[in-house]
Write a structure and sequence with these properties.
Layout lengths: L6 E3 L6 E6 L4 E5 L5 E3 L6 E3 L4 E4 L2 E4 H11 L12 H11 L10 H16 L7 H26 L1
Antiparallel strand pairs: 1-5, 2-3, 3-4, 6-7
């Protein structure tokens, strides 16, 4: 899942891609409605690939979390960001059980799920061939370990 060309923009809701560049600013395009507009020096662009969620062991990148949600939901949309804070926290706990409950705020969790659903509607959540192959290899290795364990217990 490549999130390197998807950005958030300070002061604006939603997600954006870079559509072009002028001498003094960058032109972004909204993933929600496709509208293009310029950004200025006062606006901060942040790539989704650089955003992580705090866990008790460190940090987990959004791409890993979104991959987990994508697999859990079989490629469909996840819970709506407008659900109650308790429901959103419970859903996140099912996906990322070790998230840091003190450092991850309700607003962060809402953005996490809102962005996932925006990416889903924009068809930006497809796993790359490399990721599909890696997941298949990991599944095959896990199955081999299980078979070996079963074979060892039969002896």
């Amino acid at each position: 899942m490549n999130l390197s060309d998807i950005f958030t923009l300070s002061g604006k809701s939603g997600l954006f891609t870079i559509a072009g560049q002028t001498k003094n600013n960058v032109i972004v395009e909204s993933l929600i409605d496709g509208k293009k507009f310029p950004t200025f020096a006062s606006n901060k662009l942040s790539a989704l690939k650089d955003i992580s969620i705090f866990t008790t062991e460190g940090e987990t990148s959004l791409s890993e979390i979104y991959r987990t949600i994508y697999n859990k939901e079989d490629g469909k949309e996840c819970i709506s960001h407008s659900e109650s804070a308790d429901d959103l926290r419970l859903y996140l706990e099912n996906i990322l059980p070790n998230y840091d409950k003190d450092q991850v705020y309700n607003s962060d969790i809402k953005k996490l799920f809102m962005w996932y659903n925006i990416l889903h509607k924009a068809d930006k959540l497809k796993l790359s061939e490399k990721e599909n192959t890696t997941e298949e290899n990991n599944t095959d290795k896990q199955e081999e370990k299980t078979e070996t364990t079963i074979d060892n217990t039969k002896k």
